[in-house]
Please model this.
Amino acid sequence: MAKLIGGLGTSHVPSIAAALDKGLRDTPDWKPFFDGYIPGQDWVKEAKPDVAVVIFNDHGNSFFLDRVPTFAVGCAEEYKPVDEGWGPRPIPPFQGAVDFSWHLVDTLVENRFDPMICQEIDVDHGIQVPMELFWGRPAAWPVKVVPIFVNVIQYPIPLPSRCWELGQVLRKAIESYDSDERFVVVGTGGLSHQLQGARAGFVNPEADRAFLRDIAADPGKLASLSRERYVELFGSEGAELMMWLVMRGCMDEAVKVLHTHYFVPASMTGAGMIVLENEAGATGRAAA
Amino acid sequence: METTVTIVLIPGLLCDASIWTSQVAALSQRAPVVVADLSTQDSITAMARDTLALAQGPLAVVGHSMGARVALEMVRLAPERIERLALLDTGAHPRRDGEEATRQVLVDLARREGMAALADRWLPPMVHEARTGDAALMEPLREMVKRATADQHDRQIRALLGRPNAREHLSAIACPTLVAVGRQDRWSPLAQHEEIAAAIPGARLVIIEDSGHMSPVEQPDQVTAALLAWLDMESPMTADRIPDTPLFDRERQRRGYRINKMAMGLSKPENREAFKADEEAYLDRFSLTADEKKAVMSRDWREMVRLGGNLFFILKISAVDPVRITEIGAHQAGMAHDAFLRDRLGKK
Model:
């Protein structure tokens, strides 16, 4: 069976992509931010996942308001960067893991999650930025992707506890997948930021740091918070942090925190990263 | 698409359309107005059902005294139809101990001595103490009570005594709600309205000065002004339970659909060219209103968001006409860009 080798969490701020595109990586504004991801990149190089399940939200690029799926799963052969208004970014397209995507959809529906199924869809910075932060800018991505889209923009957005439950079903899907592929699950979004209204520019470093601790040590607490509480603590767009709960719900209760990183502000956002492994080691691993 | 809202005015015990004369004149400038007739039913629920049937589509409901209890029952029966709610000089509590006996005295009086006798007994405590001798106020009220019958009074008292407990439903009210009361209302005091307003999310409490229980006739101008302001009151969903944080909820996304669709169009290169070539013509393709066009063309980000624009969509305007996201943030925060970076984002 497939192996779950780790869980990653990261922000997906579009300015990160813009900074990379403009060659600003090593400028004083950005270097400390990007350097903090080096341990995460090293972990990925060492762990060599075959498939990355990436949980993110579309930002009004692949979905308009005419149809808004609460949860959607990509089942495509390939995902191209979408034109967000500035033209598609010059990064390689992502190869899909079609067979697993369908297995995931089956498992979800059998477990009473009923996602939208997307066989042709472009993807925005929500997945691009996490991939670049962990895998760099390769000529071709050395990992296949399974995008899970979560609506965290148009209310009603899902409950944080529902994101957690989605992660638990994702775990079932990975563990019941007949393959020797190595899976990593990537929860993205946040941390605190607010783009709309007179509170625009709200960041909450204290709450962000607590989140980075709690997502490993006390995720049940984060899963039980209301959506409104997320907005209060992390800002109107910071509520997307609940997508990390999909990743965390997929992991064991006991996890090792290998790396964390926090930097504020990346553009208007408190940005962060975490690398987790199950305390008990990779699941489905053959006896050593 | 946009259906016309009907304003429904609901009079209280022994009252009729005459108490709403001033309000009808002012409010009918804004929307069609109908006045409910509660003279024939003997339960609050039946009154609510009949009043709901007065018009099709969404309603802006104004109830006075018993009429406000009917309004609350309408919200319970058909919350999807009540676009906004105004409760004047009323209560939400169920029947109180001893209430039946007190009311029976008046029922008997009307039966025994007639409606004029009832008016003499019932009316004075209903108005501001200082105005019980004000003939211009009292005479029309007396005439109104005399137009009613002892049977109607009897039915309405039965309806009141059998009224539902509306308190437990107050917290579920999700429409813009006005609670108003005469400061000298001796029948349903201010404190009672403070409780009601506190229980309804986002409700606005307005105190009508120098008025008793009969505020629509005692201080018609104040009541009308409160109602006109209420017609423009934003939904509690839109009125940001978290301060200065406009969640992209049902109301906002419906309000902003056109503006967001226009902005979404900018993810196509040919539309970006069209926008650059003739912005107004591009906006017209999406049937933007004058306000929406003005907000977009003046790059008034705060106003675009107020009109339902969502940053993820309207940000695409900055792909055509570059502006930094932090400048958009500073504009919405009402701050200079430097101060915004320093004070909000902690930049040195």
